[in-house]
Structure prediction request, 109 residues.
Amino acid sequence: MTDIPIGTPEQPADPRNIAPWKRGLLMLLMGLAFHIASMLLCLLAVVQWVLVLLQLGANRQLQAFACSLGQYLRQIAEFVGFVAEKIPFPFADWPGGAAPEPSDSGPPA
Prediction:
C-alpha cells in the first residue's frame, strides 16, 4: 500500500508536512497497532515454546513471521518517537522478515 495522500495536487504529499493533529491521530492508531502486535508476538513465543517442549522443533514460518513482526514493532516505535517519518503498515508495505539460519546443534537437552 502507499502512504496516506496528504498533499494537494499543487503540493505533493510529504510525510514531514503532516499536520500535527493528523500525526497525533496516526500515533494513537500506531500505538494500538503496537499493543496488538506485541500481544501477538507473546502468543508466538508461547506457541514456539510449546513446539520445542513437544520436541517438534521451532517452526520456520513462525520464526520468519516473528522476525517481520519485530521489524514492524521497531517501525512503529520509530514513527511514534519521531525518529522516522515513514508511516508503518497498513500505510506502507509489511516489513519482510527472514528466519535465522538453522544451527547444527539441536534443541537444548
Notes: The two ends are 45 Å apart (CA to CA). The chain is about 50% helix and 0% strand.
